[in-house]
Amino acid sequence: MSADGDIPELRTKVALACRVLAHRGLVDGILGHVSARVGESELLVRCRVADEPGLAASEWDHVWRVGLDGAPIDLPEGATVPNELPIHTELMCRHQDVGCVIHAHPPAALLTGLAGLRPRAVFGAYNIPAMRLALDGVPVYPRPVLITRPELAAELAEVMGDRPVCLMVGHGITVAAPSIEQATVMAVNLEALLGVTVELARLGADPPEVSKEDLAEIPDLGSSFNDMLVWNALVAALPDLPAVSRGTGVG
Predict the structure, then answer these.
(1) Among residues 9, 52, 84, 155, which one is catalytic?
(2) How many independent structural domains does the chain possess?
(3) Among this protein's residues, is 84 annotated catalytic?
(4) Buried b vs exposed e over 211-221: b needs ≥16 C-beta within 10 Å?
(5) Is the pTM value of this prediction over 0.85?
């Protein structure tokens, strides 16, 4: 859980996460949002601003504080919170270990959901975290609606249960994790899994799942490798890393 003193760094990280998601094709234009928990009763969330440049150009001053009750705290004139803010507030209220929520609209997620495909653990060392997402199961929220009301957010949260990811049919994905870095990398890995799922269906291929024998040879490399190193690489790959992001300890 983050303290108020972390707010400047968290704002920059939320903006960087938005840029990473846009650079990787998980969000497009102004659609999608990232939040980070602040203390017991607040979060930071990427808002839309009066001169909105899109998520690919997110900056720290596009990220503002909101109460877990949904009430804006320091929102400047002309800025608005995401219409689907209830996704963030519901998941953070339900799960105290959730420090970041991401909602995005990746193309492979759309196709996987509409085609009724099921992600399977058919690859191993190619992408170990993505394989484990398949092994543990990807919950599916079946309604292609905007999650603008607490009741709908509660439905989504019930479908997710204790899983950190959800495929939303005709809509996109939601990811909830302890940190911004973990959530961002998980969203990228989920899209990689769904991309393979779609391509195998296109090819008409049905490979077997990784055997128990081979699973025993695939270790968990830990969060410092799977999350932090990957996060650093994703940030470093951004074509226009804003100067404000340098020197904040996020790279």
Answers:
(1) 84
(2) 1
(3) yes
(4) eeeeeeeeeee
(5) yes
Residue 56's closest CA among 26, 85, 82, 77?
A: 26
Q: How many residues does the chain have?
A: 251
Q: What is the dihedral of CA 157, 163, 168, 173, to 10 degrees?
A: 110
CATH number of the domain enclosing 29? 3.40.225.10
CA angle (23 as vertex; 78, 136 as ends), nearest 5: 105
Q: Which domain holds residue 127?
A: 4-243
103 occurs within a structural domain: yes
- 248: in domain: no
| Integer Cα distance of 172 and 141 in angstroms | 10
Q: Lowest mean pLDDT of 82-96, 102-116, 232-246, name the range.
A: 232-246
Position 240 scores a pLDDT of: 76
pLDDT above 90 covers a percentage of the chain that reads 87
Instruction: Answer yes or no: is 175 within a domain.
Output: yes
- If one counts every other C-beta atom within 10 angstroms of the C-beta of residue 18, the result is 27
**Residue 136 belongs to some domain of the structure:** yes
- As a dihedral over the C-alpha atoms of residue 112, residue 118, residue 131, residue 143, rounded to 10 degrees, the angle is 60
The pLDDT mean for the chain works out to 93
Helix (H) or strand (E) holding 157: helix 150-160
